[in-house]
Amino acid sequence: MTNSESAHVEFDVTKPSISRVYDAMLGGKDYYPSDERVLDHLREAMPDVYELAKLNRAALNRGVRYLAGTAGLTQYLDLGAGLPTMENTHQVAQELQPDASVIYVDNDPIVLAHARALMSLNGRTGVITADLRDPEGVLAHPDVQRLIDFSQPVAVMLVGMLHHLHDDEDPEGVVDAYLDAVPVGSHLFITHFLHTGEESRALEKSFLEFLGTGRFRTYDEIIRLFRGCELVEPGLVPLSHWRPDGIVRDKLTLVEEIIVGGIAVKS
Ligand code: SAM
């Protein structure tokens, strides 16, 4: 299914959806009782858990500004893109690089439906419904092939995404497959839940039990997901410390401590 096809999309609202739960945390209104139940349990485990999503989304915007502005990238593969919200990857990237191509990939069909309805998409922006655990299928998709020139650097974005892959789904292998497809000079942008001990364990338990995914990995496990690519300054850090727009307190809140991210270059 591509954004050029018109398809009737059905959602199973009896089961919670990662994209709807995340969007609700950001203030969106398109959630159902199944999602609300997850949100209640997450809030029980950590009352200010919604901050996690807000920190992540703000970092996504700063990261894309870095990729388009400082790194000068003009091609974006946004894997696990989520529902459209205030400032989306193509809007941020195309403001700085008007010719930038952006392809959004998500396995939740609601993302495509909302993208069609809410985003003013243009010829350089595509949205596909696909499972990123099938890199071959994603990379061969006609819209990906049309929008991305794989001989030129690509921003591979796995923002707020890899913690939704279980260990037995081989997140490292998934990253390898996308990195193998892009040339030197491409960038890898990852944000991820961080295991910090008891505090994060309780939240992880709620994520896994009620949403089905949400792994809090150790710092070393997350570093490994960068597959040897060279991290740009300031490295892999709590998102509040990743190129903040303003002054940030040294002492982070608990919720700020449990989400980290970084951008690395393939060399
Ligand atoms: N990247 C966006 C951001 O950081 O604001 C959205 C993050 S949201 C937490 C994770 C998204 O990944 C959801 O929209 C979910 O549907 C999508 N997702 C989860 N598993 C996926 C998979 N196997 N393939 C493609 N998308 C997936």
Automatic annotation (TrEMBL):
<dbReference type="GO" id="GO:0032259">
    <property type="term" value="P:methylation"/>
</dbReference>
<dbReference type="GO" id="GO:0008168">
    <property type="term" value="F:methyltransferase activity"/>
</dbReference>
<keyword id="KW-0489">Methyltransferase</keyword>
<protein>
    <submittedName>
        <fullName>SAM-dependent methyltransferase</fullName>
    </submittedName>
</protein>
<dbReference type="InterPro" id="IPR029063">
    <property type="entry name" value="SAM-dependent_MTases_sf"/>
</dbReference>
<keyword id="KW-0808">Transferase</keyword>
<dbReference type="InterPro" id="IPR006764">
    <property type="entry name" value="SAM_dep_MeTrfase_SAV2177_type"/>
</dbReference>
<dbReference type="Pfam" id="PF04672">
    <property type="entry name" value="Methyltransf_19"/>
</dbReference>
